[in-house]
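Input.
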Amino acid sequence: MNESEFFERVLGLSEPWSVKEVKLDLAVTQVQITVECCSGETWTGPDGSRRHIHGWEERRWRHLDTMQLETVIIAKVPRLLDPQTGSTEMAPVPWAQKGARWTVLFEAWAVRLFEAVPNVSKAADLLRLDWHSAWEIKRRAVDRGLARRTAEPIVSLGLDEKSFGRGQDYAAVLTDPARHRVLEVHAARTQESAEKLLKGTLTQEQRAGVAAVCIDMWAPFEAAIGTCLPHARIVYDPFHVVSHANEAVDQVRRSEQRQRLAQGDETLTGSRSLWLHGFEHLNRRKRRELLALLTPELKTGLAWALKEQLRKLWRYKRPSAARGFLDDWLQQVDASGLQPLKKVAKMITAHLTGIIAWFWYPISNGPAEGFNSAIQALKTLARGYRNFSNFRIAILFHHGKLDLIPH
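Output.
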């Protein structure tokens, strides 16, 4: 078997394609495989009509390395004329998909490597690809996966906002909590953006089957759901409710610390992190430090205790019991006189229906689904995304649960 026959078998070539020449260029550590096409082949279009060769175009494709040498396929490909429209298009080749600059085998290997190495620059270095080519392969994989996705029924949705870039740039992320996957990502967090996201991602039948949507208390998302999913229950994400209470605790701490420092009291200095985590998440040393601070005269301690009590709301099983607990909590906050927490109580009262709806539809956009931490990890690896398109591709590639491999 000579080298031409070897590569014909490796590439799975058959008439009208054959290997004309194999050239080894050690100066650039590259193997160049020239493939030729028999001009007597009869070509047909998708509708079965005959296509005539209008011309030839030389193309190049990157293939899997041969003995650590970069391998390139070079071929003159026929341009086929459609007699009905007068337009031309490239004839299909057996080793690559339409529009690709890489063979199917190379794209498949690249996709697997990108799945294992989320840092695009590092993966591109291993593949000996430039940065733009790496992102193009990931984009093609996502487009392929979205095209293959079936329109199965979806009972619940998550709609959340995520920042990207280094400024105040936000994207709307639509998730399927039951299947732990991201459905789609859209630029901006406006009502118009959310409506396009819902209508463009879900079929009419899927939208009709959605029973509940989990969001934070962002009015544009509420309005979009009212327009696109008027029958669906809005469920407010417990994680976001508690985050507002955490922020209120921090406001109380900062105010009280300023007052105490003015009197030379450094009791609260360096204690910020103690108040913002759940007690169960603190190690033994930090628990002792926190318990030592919980004195009757410390307002921050009272605020923290009320925040921790609020976190118990979602342990209840029955909506009526949860409502009773929340009514009692609202009264305690009112009696505390702590203005930051009273603002949280006012917000909860205004959104009470959506908060209690969680007990019928226990869904969340928060850490329980892993999306927040996973997306943050992608942002950290990329040091932020200046380009929304790449931000979207990265999320769907790693968290869309798509069929990405070309075949």
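DSSP finds 16 helices and eleven strands in the chain.
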